[in-house]
C-alpha cells in the first residue's frame, strides 16, 4: 500500500474541527423549521433554504477531510465504515432537502407530500446524531460516553493501593494490567478473535479455538507466552501487526506468572520466591519502594524541576544532563578547576544548589574542584546518588564516613585523593557499593588483596 | 523582523532608495505569499515563530523537558557518556589475532571446501585463483585472564586486559571492498552521503564541553594503505556543526587556529560580534540553517584558540604514562600518541573521539604485516584500556576496536609454511568493545571451523550501530532526520540491539 502523504493527514486532522460547522448549521435549520411550524405567522423558509445549502456544502467538505483522516489507518474498520456511509447519507439527504425546499423542480400536485418539512429535518438531525456518535466513538473509544454514566456498572474497579511489595497479588496487580493494555482490545466481551476471551480468569484458562493457552509452570509450552515472544515478523506473533508489542518487562511478568506462580490468580508476592528483577519491575509499576540488590540500578521517581533551577545551575558552571528526557533525573558535572580555590564560599554556594534539588541528582562529578570532607558532609543528603566522582580533591578518610549515608551509591571515584586503607572497611559496609576507584592514593595493592577476601564487597580499582 | 537593520545598513540615501524599489512581482510575493507563508510556517514550526515569546514568557508552564532537547533524547538511561572508536582500516586478520581455529592445522594447503564457501562472491584479486588453499595461522594462541579469551602471540599487552574486553566474533558486513565497507561501518550505508556515527551522536545528544568539538578525529600519520576521506567523519545531511574535526599531528593540531603573524587577536571578539550580527540579518532574511552552523563554527573556533593548545599539550603527562603507552607515544601523530591524546580529549568530555589507523590490508605477506601492525598498536590499545580504567573513566566511556571486514581463511597467492596472503572477507570478523555498559570478559558469537561463516549469534553492522546508540540512551529507530522527503536513520530500516552483550 502506498503511504499516505503527511499533508493529507495534516488536512485530515481538521475533520473534527470542520465537522461541527454542518452540525451547527443544520441544527439551526431544524430549529427554524420548528418555529415555522408552531408560529404560523413566521416564515423562515428563505433562511432554511440557505442553511440547508450551507449545511450540505460544509458537510461535504467535512466528509472529504474525514476521508483523508481515515487514510491514517488508525481507526477500527467496522465502525469507520458505518461512520463513513452515515456521513454520506447525511450529505445526500441534506442536498435533497435543499432541492425540495428551493423548489427547483416543481413537483406534480400528487407528490406534494414529499417536501422538505419538519419530518425531513428531523431525519437529518437523527442522521447527524448517529453519525456524530460513531465519530465520537472512533475518536475517544466506544466506552468513552458511558464510562461514568450512572447506569453503567461496568466501571473499572480501582485496585486498592498497597503499602509494600509483599502485599502485591500477582494476577490483578501485575498480570492483568498487561493483558488489559495489550490483549483485551481483541479478546473481550464483544470481540473474541480466535474464539479467545481473556477478561475473566475462567475464560483465560479455557483458551481459544486451538485449546488452552496456558500451561502452568511451563511458559515455553504456553501458547500465550510463545505467541508474544515470536519474532515480530512471524505471522503468529501477538499482538498482531500495527499494535504495540509487549515490552521486555511485561514479558518477564508473564513468564514469572506462568513459570513460578503456576498461573495462580490469588497468590501474593509474600507467598512466593520472587527474583530481584520481578521485584524491581513490580515496585516500578506500582510505585512501591524496593530496596533489594538491584536498587542502585532502579531509577527513582522525582519531582519535575523547572527550567529556571537548571539555568541557575548552568550559570554557576555546572554541566547538567537529564538521564531520560522529562524525568528530571540529573547527571551533573562540575568541570575541573571551575571553583576558584581561593574563594572559600565558592564551592559551598554551588553545593547548596545541589542540596536544593537533592532527590534529582543521580550522577555527580566534581573532580578537581577542592572538595573537602566538610563538603562531603553536606552532600550526603543527595539520597538518590548512584555515581559519585571526586578525583583530585583533598578528601581524607574522615570524609568517607559521611558517604555511608548514600544508600544507593554504586560507584565512587576517589583517585588522587588523600584517603588511606583505613577507609576500606567503610566501603565494605556500604551495601550497594560495587566499585571504588582509588588510584594514586596511599592504598596499595597489598591492602586491597587483604581486604578483598569476600566476593560480595566492592571492587577496589587501583592503577599502575 | 530584522533586528539591527538600522544600525547596520548604510545611511546612504541612494542605497536606501534602491532598497525600497520593489517591483510588482516582489511586492506581490512579499505581501500575499509572504503573509501566507508566515501563517503556514507558524503552523508547521511553532517553536521558531514564537521562540521570542517563549524565551521571555513565564517559567511556570510545566515544560515537559527542563533541558529542551527538541529531539526527545535520551530515550532511556544511558550507560555511555563518551566513546573512543579505534578504527583499524584495511581489515585486520581475525584468524591471526583473535579467532582461534586449531582444526585448520591439519588442513594446511587443502582446497577450501565448496560447502564452506557456498558460492560466496570474492574480490577480483583472488576470484581467478584455481585453488583456495587453506592457510592456518602461524601464530601461537593462548588463553588469558579469568575469561579465558584466546589471543595470539602478537598482542601480549592486550592479553593483559582481556577481562575488561567484550569480543564479538560474529561481525558481518555487506561490502567486500574497502571504501564501501568503511563507509558502511562509519555511516550505515555503503554509498557516501550519510552522516557518520559521531555526527549522529553530536546531533542527538549535543556537547558536554562547549570549548571543544563534540566529535574529533585523529589519523595515524605516515601510514600506507587505502585512503581515508574526510567524509568518513562528515556530517552528511545533518547541520554542518556536527561534522568531525580532525586534529593533526605536529605544530598546529587544527589548521588556521592560531593568530596570523603580527596580529595579537585583541579585537577578534569585537569582529566576531559584528559578523554575528550580519549573519543574523542574513539568517532572518533567508532562514538557511547553514548560516547558523557557520556562526556556531566561528564561535567554536574562537574558543578552540585557547582550549586546543591546552588539551594538546603533552608536557604535563608524567613519564610513566608515556611508558604505559609505549615509546611511540612521545612522537606526535603515531597511533600510541593518538591513543594518549584520545584519553586527554575524553577527560575533557569530548563525546566522540575517532582514531583511524591504516595499513591492515594484508593481501600478501600477511604474517609479517599483521605482526608489524600489532607492534604499532597493541601496547597503546591495552594502555588506553588501563589508563581509562584507573581514572574511573571506563565506567562511562565506550571503547571500540575493529576494522571494516575480516580476512579469508584461504591464501591469496602463494601459500608457504611461513607466508600467506589473505583477501577481504565480509562474512565473519572480530571486533572488541570495552567499558560503559558492555559485559567485561565476555565473548559473543561464533564462527565455523574455518572462521568463514557465522554459526552462532551473528551481529550485522546495523545491529552494532543499534547497540551503540542504545548504550547512549538512544532508540535507534527514533533518532531520525528528514532529508529530501525521507526520514533517515543511522540504521536505515534495519538493526537490532544486541542485548546479550549489555550489562
TrEMBL record, chain A:
Origin: domain of life: Bacteria
Residue ranges occupied by any Cytochrome c domain in the UniProt entry: 136-262
Residues in the signal sequence: none
Alphabetically ordered keywords of this record: Heme, Iron, Membrane, Metal-binding, Transmembrane, Transmembrane helix
PROSITE patterns, A to Z: CYTC
Pfam family, one: PSCyt1
Record-level Gene Ontology MF annotations: electron transfer activity; heme binding; metal ion binding
Family matches, as InterPro entries: Cyt_c-like_dom, Cyt_c_Planctomycete-type, DUF2231_TM, LRR_dom_sf
SUPFAM superfamilies: RNI-like
Tagged with keyword Transmembrane: yes
Residue spans crossing the bilayer: 17-35, 47-69, 84-105, 117-136
Gene3D superfamilies: Ribonuclease Inhibitor
Record's protein name: Uncharacterized membrane protein
Species per Swiss-Prot/TrEMBL record: Maribacter arcticus
TrEMBL record, chain B:
Any Pfam family: DUF1501
SUPFAM superfamilies reported for this sequence: Alkaline phosphatase-like (SSF53649)
Superkingdom of source: Bacteria
InterPro entries reported for this sequence: Alkaline_phosphatase_core_sf (IPR017850), DUF1501 (IPR010869), TAT_signal (IPR006311)
PROSITE patterns the record matches: TAT
PANTHER family: BLL7424 PROTEIN (PTHR43737), DUF1501 DOMAIN-CONTAINING PROTEIN (PTHR43737:SF1)
Protein name as it appears in the record: Tat (Twin-arginine translocation) pathway signal sequence
UniProt source species: Maribacter arcticus
